[in-house]
Write a structure and sequence with these properties.
Layout (H helix, E strand, L loop, with lengths): L1 E5 L3 E9 L2 E9 L2 E5 L6 E11 L8 E7 L2
Length: 70
């Protein structure tokens, strides 16, 4: 699960990577706080998250690491 808040209609992009496997998720969301879900196998994943508004303005990329337990 990814929880985020956007200030306006945006396309949210999330990329998860582990080893050579990369999984992506793209969702269009309205203003507000959202929880996005993407099933992943157990393991440790690096992630990058960014949003693009209707005018094409891209947010800063937020990155980190998350561990999925199964």
């Amino acid at each position: 699960q990814v929880r985020l808040t956007v200030s306006e209609l945006s396309t949210v992009n999330v990329r998860f990577a582990t080893g050579t496997d990369v999984f992506t998720m793209r969702r269009q969301v309205e203003q507000g706080t959202w929880t996005l879900e993407r099933p992943l196998a157990s393991g440790t994943y690096a992630y990058e998250l960014w949003a693009v508004d209707a005018m094409g303005n891209r947010s800063a990329t937020h990155s980190g690491e998350v561990r999925v337990r199964g």
